[in-house]
Fold this sequence. Notes:
The protein is mainly alpha-helical. It has helices spanning 2-43, 71-78, 80-102, 106-115, 120-131, 138-149, 154-161, 178-204, 208-216, 221-246, 254-259, 265-268, 271-281, 285-313, and strands at 54-55, 66-67. α5 packs antiparallel against α8 (178-204) and α8 (178-204) packs across α10.
Amino acid sequence: MSLGRKKDKTVAATAGRRRKRREGFILFAMAFPLIALSFAFTYLPLHGWIYAFYDFRPGFTLAQSEFVGFHWFTVLFDNPIRVQQILQVLRNTFAMSGLAIAFSWFPVAFALLLSEIRSTGMKKGIQVLTTLPHYISWVLVFAMAFAMLSTDGMVNNLLMSLGLIDTPIQFLRASGPRVWGIMTAWGVWKSFGFGAIIYLAAISGLDQELFEAARVDGAGRFRLIWHISIPGILPTYMVLLLLAIANFLNNGFEQFFLFENAFNVRHIEVLDLYVYNLSFRGRSFSLATAISMMRSVISVIMLFSINWLSKLLRGGESII
Length: 320
């Protein structure tokens, strides 16, 4: 009898292992297309880093180009004018990324306020309207900004018809550090609705018994938010904040490329735009590749450093 029970347990354990392997294979098959796309668009292009070690010129193949080793990496620091340009670009990059991180609380606040709306229809309507800009391309955003804020745009025409101004205001030709604030405002407007979705999901996953117990104790809406909602979504916010810090050198390209003009070029040229300008305007493909390569390596180092810091501060909890 005992041998029969042992045999049944062995058969059940074997069947369980087979079922788990089958389920694991099915899950891997479902994830494989995404893994393949990620490999194709993220890791295969790294082969292009080889251009940083050649004196590549358009019209010639890589085999016809001269191998120069680390020449382009040393060029970055040999020329004082180039060093000054890179420092200005890094200043713009740090300013834009710093302002973006400084306003990273905005989606959190919006999600907390949105979660307090009792009307389901109003909540969904507001969420749709604020999420929609995320799916609008920067080309359309710039077209809208140009139609509204150009010298003969809607805003200037309205102000002049009301007699508030005599000459059009050059909204799109702002120069100096004001450009950083303007670009940050556009970025926040475009992304805060979509970013709030993550925090709304985190709020909906909180234990509702905590809210009920707090209401029984006489807590109002503000105390519920302060003592339950904010601590509940704080881990999610910290993970996204740490990932944003690790991605500090990547501001994006489309927004700054479209809003760039002769008046604001010194303060809007971030690292991604600088690499593009070197490649397609300056025809320095090898130098641009070297800069892009260094940026990627520094970003990876920052990611692992932030991950180590997260494990240190959060008791071994990692973000990757």
